Amino acid sequence: MSDHLHYGFQEGVATISMDDGNVNVMSLQMLSELGAAVDRAEADNAILVLRSTRPGIFSAGFDLKVFAANDIEGSLKMVKAGAELALRLLTYRFPTVGLMQGHAFPMGAFLLLACDIRIGTKGVHRIGLNEVAIGIAPPAFAIELARSRLVPSYLSRSVTLGEMYGPDEAVLSGFLDRVVPEEAFEPALEAALSALRVIHGPSHAVAKTRLRRATQAAMRSAIDEDLTLAAYAARSQSSAR
Asked: In the beta sheet, which residues pair with residue 62?
């Protein structure tokens, strides 16, 4: 698809692999290409696997240079594209698998939270919503997404304190479903895909819709109400005081 995004399709599984040569920054371009890849996977009626092939990193999150430049319009477009992509993944009608073999900072964490199954490897990498720790309030859509997946005590710490977690605690908190040693990672993925291939697709789609209806509505409302130019500009001015 591009130099930093690869789409592969085999045996009913679409694998979207990220490698921008750096830290898989979620720029507007990367988010747009990821969205197109998800659309392609759904057109292929595929189980979706989202992963990074960049060693040690899933994604460093949004492009902080856009925020630092005080580019309100550019920041809004980027954050809204990330929000729409997370919502798109959460409501994808086939099973989704997110793979974490390296650090996953906020937008990367949002994408993993939106996947049905999240598998990580043991290591020193971390995942979380660290916005507060770097002087940014977490976007409302992300809080609603996190609310649907995280253990309540960890939700509060993640959102209000910006804590980051290693792989084992990521399972306890709800960011990941399971963690395995690096050498067992590919077998764990294959076992998960084998199980997903035999579930009843239409029932999965209906169950997902029913389970996530409230979260979908909350995220949609947050996107429509909070991610407007007027609201975004007002928050930016307030946080600068």
From this structure: 26
Question: Which residues are registered as beta bridge partners of 59?
Answer: 104
User: How far is CA 33 from its chain centroid?
Assistant: 14
Total domains in the chain come to 1
* pLDDT at 240 > cutoff 70: no
Both structure tokens of 117: 């199954």
Determine the structural domain holding residue 151 and report its residue range.
5-182
Is residue 196 a contact partner of residue 11, using CB atoms and an 8 Å limit?
no
Residue 103 in tokens: 């650090």
Residue 86 lies in a domain: yes
Question: H-helix or E-strand containing 104?
Answer: strand 102-104
* Percent of the chain residues topping a pLDDT of 90: 90
Q: Is the pTM of this model over 0.85?
A: yes
Share the mean pLDDT of the chain.
Answer: 95
State how far Cα 186 lies from the chain centre. 20
Element (H, E) at 85: helix 72-90
Residue 213 falls inside a structural domain? no
Tokens of 73: 């319009």
- How many Å apart are CA 120 and CA 17, to the nearest integer? 15
Residue 15 maps to a domain: yes
Residues 6 or more apart whose CB falls under 8 angstroms from that of 31 comprise 78, 81, 82, 85
Give the single-character DSSP code of 132. Answer: G
Closest CA to 112 of 67, 176, 162: 176
Integer angstrom CA distances of residue 80 from 31, 75, 86, 204: 10, 8, 10, 28
DSSP annotation of 178 reads E
